[in-house]
């Protein structure tokens, strides 16, 4: 589904990714772990197409298409979802308006029929209920006045509504207490754990992986994957720290 | 007509461009049939002025009287609006029969119409004015609001070409209220001038709106609110958006006289630049001679939040739509004060049309 080959990228002229290679197939959940500054968030933003994150070498294909040639909104319409470490507050735009605009824009790009207001609200209510967010919150401006945990749950509500093929979740576990962690973990499994979807979980800590069991774990250090393994690698990292393994 | 226009060397006119007015003053209207059917919002009293003349067939005056008007002004543009115009004069405790609508269509040249609104004690009215077409449209409106009377005004400046200038002179007595919301979403240049006197105890005034400019268009508003009595409240909430090489300018002034204790004044002037070559001028001014007052003011100019844009785009919203959504959110609170839902919706639709064309 996703093929990253020898990816090089820089931010403000500073090389961050230095030859990253990774492949995800449908039905797989991969975790990328690594110390601060390894390039984890840069990888997420490069895949999402954020301006200022410049690819200087390598290739990325998504279901056979050149991902790097697409605009961010085209990547979304193609089925890529980027879960933000720091979801953005947008005063004056309600979550409902934002998500309906987003979903219908994606459907238009794919040549599908747009959802009516009623159809959309029904979908939104189902997803919000599952993540423990009230519809009242969804009627409020995007992320404004939301706690850290509510913002992350809102990311999952968005993911549930948009129903992507591939989710790249950047530190979705940061800022969550143990109950919220469980809710978010269950959300990821419910929405994404199917044979035709894939997830790239980017995380600093092992704890989210107790709820979302990865099929593969990779260690990112200094802009490259330095080790790959099964779920046991995450426990090893937790025990021994990044120093020993990334060295 | 002897046309003497203010010069940009005068402080109050430094951001204006009146250079097209002499030619328009000499030109003749083109005339022709104009379809105004989309411009009416409700089914209350209505007046249609075409090139400054009442169209009898399409007007239903109701409480309004058309004829000579008791309005006079020393204002350089307002003083030009003499002769036949419209009057709304409501006696005490009378509410106007429905939403009053006045549509001004111009087909070129210049037209000047005065208006006069007098609300007796406890009277209530809501008036919408819409300006469309071409040419120079110049208006003077004198407003006298009696004790506990309430006037809602909403003004849409939607001309395609030419120039729209409006001058408002208002006086509000004890406990009276004036709420004026202006939307500039046409393609013509505009000048909005207002002077509001809070003459009675506990008077309330709001004057603000959203000005959207693109191309080489210029919107220019100069508003003075004078607190002359105790316990008055005023709000000036403006949002200006400038795209391309356009200019939007806001000069908002609050004056608090010596005796006007317990005044509560607020100014919020915010500008949004959609292109680097666009210009926003903000000039908030406070002049306070009383010591027990609360006057808040804020003036900021910025660009769209790049992080919010990427967030929207990452969810599948194309860049043009994402910009429109954020710009709409920016202007929306300036239009929130329109009390009538149908009017509010119509104004938002016009703002959306402007935003939708912002490709």
Automatic annotation (TrEMBL), chain A:
Organism: Sphingomonas oleivorans
Keyword ATP-binding in annotation: yes
Entry-linked SMART domains: AAA
Phylogenetic lineage: Bacteria, Pseudomonadati, Pseudomonadota, Alphaproteobacteria, Sphingomonadales
Protein name: Fe-S cluster assembly ATPase SufC
NCBIfam families tied to this protein: sufC
UniProt keyword list: ATP-binding, Nucleotide-binding
GO molecular function terms noted in the UniProt entry: ATP binding; ATP hydrolysis activity
Record flagged with keyword ATP-binding: yes
Domain ABC transporter: start-end pairs: 2-247
Family of the protein in this entry: Belongs to the ABC transporter superfamily. Ycf16 family.
InterPro entries listed in its UniProt record: AAA+_ATPase, ABC_transporter-like_ATP-bd, FeS-cluster_ATPase_SufC, P-loop_NTPase
TrEMBL record, chain B:
PANTHER family assigned: PROTEIN ABCI7, CHLOROPLASTIC
Biological processes annotated in GO: iron-sulfur cluster assembly
Domain annotation SUF system FeS cluster assembly SufBD core: ranges: 116-330
Origin species: Sphingomonas oleivorans
Organism classification: Bacteria, Pseudomonadati, Pseudomonadota, Alphaproteobacteria, Sphingomonadales
The protein's name: SufBD protein
Record Pfam families: SUFBD_core
């Amino acid at each position: 589904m996703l093929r990253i080959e020898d990816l090089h990228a820089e931010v403000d002229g500073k090389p961050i990714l230095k030859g990253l290679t990774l492949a995800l197939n449908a039905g797989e959940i991969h975790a990328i772990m690594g110390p601060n500054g390894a390039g984890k968030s840069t990888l997420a933003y490069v895949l999402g197409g954020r301006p200022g994150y410049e690819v200087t070498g390598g290739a990325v294909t998504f279901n056979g298409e050149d991902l790097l040639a697409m605009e961010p909104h085209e990547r979304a319409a193609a089925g890529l979802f980027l879960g933000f470490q720091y979801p953005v507050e947008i005063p004056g735009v309600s979550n409902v308006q934002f998500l309906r605009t987003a979903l219908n824009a994606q459907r238009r790009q794919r040549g599908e029929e747009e959802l009516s207001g009623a159809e959309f609200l029904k979908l939104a209510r189902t997803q919000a209920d599952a993540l423990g967010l009230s519809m009242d919150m969804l009627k409020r401006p995007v992320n404004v006045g939301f706690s850290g945990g509510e913002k992350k749950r809102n990311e999952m509500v968005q993911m549930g509504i948009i129903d992507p093929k591939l989710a790249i979740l950047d530190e979705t576990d940061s800022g969550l207490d143990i109950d919220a962690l469980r809710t978010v973990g269950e959300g990821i499994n419910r929405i994404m754990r199917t044979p035709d979807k894939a997830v790239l979980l980017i995380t600093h800590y092992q704890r989210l992986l107790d709820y979302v069991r990865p099929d593969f774990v990779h260690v990112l250090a200094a802009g490259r994957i330095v080790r790959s393994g099964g779920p046991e690698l995450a426990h090893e990292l937790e025990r021994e720290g990044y120093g020993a393994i990334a060295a | 007509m002897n046309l003497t226009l203010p010069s940009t060397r005068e402080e109050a006119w430094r951001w204006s461009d009146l250079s097209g007015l002499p030619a328009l003053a000499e030109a003749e209207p083109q005339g022709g049939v104009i379809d105004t059917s989309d411009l009416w919002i409700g089914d209350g009293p209505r007046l249609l002025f075409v090139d400054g003349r009442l169209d009898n067939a399409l007007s239903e005056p109701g409480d309004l009287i058309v004829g000579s008007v008791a309005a006079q002004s020393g204002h350089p543009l307002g003083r030009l609006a003499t002769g036949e115009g419209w009057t709304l004069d409501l006696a005490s405790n009378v509410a106007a029969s429905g939403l009053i609508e006045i549509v001004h269509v111009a087909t070129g040249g210049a037209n000047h119409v005065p208006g006069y609104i007098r609300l007796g004690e406890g009277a209530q009215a809501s008036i919408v004015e819409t300006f469309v077409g071409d040419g120079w449209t110049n208006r003077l409106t004198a407003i006298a609001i009696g004790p506990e009377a309430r006037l809602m005004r909403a003004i849409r400046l939607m001309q395609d070409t030419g120039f729209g200038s409006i001058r408002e002179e208002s006086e509000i007595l004890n406990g009276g209220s004036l709420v004026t919301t202006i939307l500039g979403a046409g393609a013509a240049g505009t000048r909005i001038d207002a002077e509001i006197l809070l003459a009675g105890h506990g008077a309330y005034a709001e004057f603000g709106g959203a000005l959207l400019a693109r191309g080489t268009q210029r919107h220019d508003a100069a508003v003075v609110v004078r607190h002359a009595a105790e316990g008055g409240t005023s709000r000036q909430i403006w949002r200006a958006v400038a795209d391309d090489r356009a200019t939007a300018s806001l000069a908002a002034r609050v004056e608090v006289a010596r005796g006007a204790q317990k005044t509560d004044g607020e100014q919020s002037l915010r500008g949004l630049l959609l292109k680097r070559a666009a210009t926003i001028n903000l000039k908030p001014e406070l002049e306070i001679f009383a010591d027990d007052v609360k006057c808040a003011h804020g003036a900021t100019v910025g660009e769209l939040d790049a992080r919010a844009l990427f967030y929207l785009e990452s969810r599948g919203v194309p860049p043009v739509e994402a910009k429109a959504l954020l710009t709409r959110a920016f202007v929306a609170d300036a239009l929130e004060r329109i009390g009538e839902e149908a009017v509010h919706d119509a104004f938002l639709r016009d703002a959306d049309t402007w935003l939708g064309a912002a490709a």
